[in-house]
């Protein structure tokens, strides 16, 4: 569904900035340092979890100054809504995973159900090792944890840096929480 320009502007005007672009860049720097320590000698296969992880992947990879390869994996459970449902698999690169040191990159760990299913899938497909990294983690319980986290924020509905609100705002420069009335 499309958001009309007036509604788009109203959502943006009511949203609260939780982290500026500068703070998100600092989070990406910290992630790069931690991932370099873990993976620089592993020739990892990086899996970008589509679609939300496109921004963190694009911003993080140039900060990783070592040998790696990039592929993607696509499982989603929000479908443009603000509450998650059943996981839908769109692409699972099973044949490429066996024997590889896998780095799963996602934009957010919320309930953790998406990451848990992706971890289970990569184990089932024979990954040699698994490292997980998320740009944002909500302060709440999760079905699984991530090894590397960029920034931790309160449990509100977020957009920006890859995170969408009704399929919009992935390009927002900063991390924003929508107002309760927009949730
Ligand atoms: O921890 P969870 O509660 O499972 O939520 C996290 C997942 O939700 C979002 O994906 P979404 O299904 O919205 O697809 P998208 O990447 O296309 O936005 C996000 O990109 C994570 O993959
Ligand atoms: O807070 C969120 N915002 C956008 N996408 C999401 N997917 C899980 N949680 C969120």
Automatic annotation (TrEMBL):
* Reactions catalysed, as given in the entry: IMP + diphosphate = hypoxanthine + 5-phospho-alpha-D-ribose 1-diphosphate; GMP + diphosphate = guanine + 5-phospho-alpha-D-ribose 1-diphosphate
| UniProt-listed GO biological process terms | GMP salvage; guanine salvage; hypoxanthine metabolic process; IMP salvage
Q: Which GO terms describe its molecular function?
A: hypoxanthine phosphoribosyltransferase activity; magnesium ion binding
Signal peptide positions (record): none
Tell me which EC number(s) this protein carries.
Answer: 2.4.2.8
State a GO cellular component annotated for this protein: cytosol
Q: Does the keyword Transferase apply?
A: yes
Q: Provide the Phosphoribosyltransferase domain boundaries.
A: 20-140
InterPro entries the record matches:
HGPRT (IPR050408), PRTase-like (IPR029057), PRTase_dom (IPR000836)
Name the keywords, alphabetized.
Glycosyltransferase, Transferase
Fetch the NCBIfam families from UniProt.
PRK09162.1
Q: What is this protein called?
A: Hypoxanthine-guanine phosphoribosyltransferase
Task: Please give the organism.
Answer: Caldichromatium japonicum
């Amino acid at each position: 569904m499309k958001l009309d320009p007036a509604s788009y502007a109203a959502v943006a005007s009511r949203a609260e900035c939780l982290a500026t672009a500068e703070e998100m860049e600092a989070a990406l720097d910290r992630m790069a340092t931690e991932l370099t320590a873990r993976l620089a000698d592993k020739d990892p296969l990086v899996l970008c979890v589509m679609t939300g992880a496109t921004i963190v992947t694009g911003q993080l990879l140039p900060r990783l100054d070592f040998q790696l390869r990039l592929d993607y994996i696509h499982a989603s459970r929000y479908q443009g809504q603000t509450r998650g449902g059943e996981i839908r698999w769109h692409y699972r690169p099973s044949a490429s995973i066996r024997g590889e040191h896998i780095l799963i990159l996602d934009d957010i760990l919320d309930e953790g159900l998406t990451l848990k299913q992706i971890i289970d899938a990569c184990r089932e497909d024979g990954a040699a090792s698994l490292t997980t990294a998320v740009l944002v983690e909500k302060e709440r319980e999760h079905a699984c944890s991530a090894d590397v986290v960029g920034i931790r924020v309160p449990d509100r509905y977020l957009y920006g840096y890859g995170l969408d609100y009704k399929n919009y705002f992935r390009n927002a420069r900063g991390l924003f929480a929508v107002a309760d009335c927009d949730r």
